Amino acid sequence: MNSKIFTGRVRHRRFKPKENEFQYTIFMLYLDLDELPTLFDRFWLWSLNKPNVASFQTQQYLADENGCIKTAVKNEVKAQLGVVPKGPIRLLTHLSYFGYCFNPVSFYYCFNEDGETLDFIVAQINNTPWNERHCYVLDNRPSDASNSPSKVVRSEFEKTFHVSPFLPMDMRYFWRFNTPSEKLAVYMKNTQDDETCFDVNLSLKRKEINSLNLCAALVTFPLMTWQVIVGIYWQSLKLWLRKTPFYDHPKTHNTK
C-alpha cells in the first residue's frame, strides 16, 4: 500500500512588520488516488463520500465532471505546463472530521510511471472566509534530458492568490519539498524586496495505515480540521490586536 499516515509539526513564523511564531502538532493522510476507492472499506470510522467520524469528501478537491480527482489533477498540470503526468498521484491532505473540512493547502505529488520519480507537485490553496481555490503547479523535470529529476523539488514564483489579509500580494514564494519517504518535509517562504517576511515549515514522519494507527490518530487529534480553522482565526485575531497592516482582498483594492 502506498497510502500512509504522516504525523509531526507545522511551524509558522512571521518576521515583519510584526513578529509572530507558533507551531502545532498535526497529522495528515497521504493517499494514493488509485487506492482511494477501497482504502477505507476495512475501517468503520472512516469512509469515502459518506458521513462518518472521518470522511474523504471528493468535492473538497480537484475533480472532473465524473468526480475523478486524478483526471482533474492531470488536466490542471496539462493546462499550466502542457504535459500530462504519466504515473501515480498521491495526495497529502486533511480529511473531514466530524463533518468539517478545511485545508489551507493540499499537495498532489505526481510521479512518473516508475512510481518513484517525482515529476510535478500541484498545490491546491484554499482561503477563508472567501472559500476560493487556486492551484500552483511545480515542475521537477530536469531541464537537461541527461539529468535525473531531483529528490528535492525547489520552485520560485510570484504570489498570485490572496490567502492572508495580513500579507500583501506583491510577494515571491520560495518552496522546497522532499520526495516523501519515511519523512516528509515542506518549506515555504514569502519574500518582499528580497527580505523574508514569512515562512512555514512542515516536518512529518510516516506511519502505516492500519486500524491501530488510524484509531490512534483520531484519539490524539479528534478535531483536526476544527483545530486548523480555529488556529487560523486565533492567530489572525492576535495580529489584528497588534495592529498588523491589514490587506483587503484584491477585488476590493483597499488597504487599511
In short:
With 256 residues, this protein is of the alpha+beta class.
Key words describing this protein structure:
256 residues, alpha+beta, ten-stranded antiparallel β-sheet, three-stranded mixed β-sheet, 4 helices, globular
The 3D shape can be described as: globular
- The tally of helices reads 4
Oligomer: single chain
Number of strands: 13
Please give a structural write-up:
The protein has 256 residues and is of the alpha+beta class. It has one domain (4-241). It is 18% helix and 38% strand. It contains four helices and 13 strands. It has helices at 36-39, 69-81, 211-220, 224-241, and strands at residues 4-14, 20-32, 46-48, 54-56, 89-93, 96-97, 105-111, 118-126, 133-139, 152-158, 172-178, 183-192, 195-208. The protein has a ten-stranded antiparallel beta sheet with strand order 9-8-7-5-2-1-13-12-11-10. A hairpin with a 2-residue loop joins strand 12 (183-192) and strand 13. It is globular. The model has no long low-confidence stretch (mean pLDDT 94).
Per-chain topology:
Blueprint: E1 4-14, E2 20-32, H1 36-39, E3 46-48, E4 54-56, H2 69-81, E5 89-93, E6 96-97, E7 105-111, E8 118-126, E9 133-139, E10 152-158, E11 172-178, E12 183-192, E13 195-208, H3 211-220, H4 224-241
Parallel strand pairs: 3-4
Antiparallel strand pairs: 1-2, 1-13, 2-5, 4-6, 5-7, 7-8, 8-9, 10-11, 11-12, 12-13
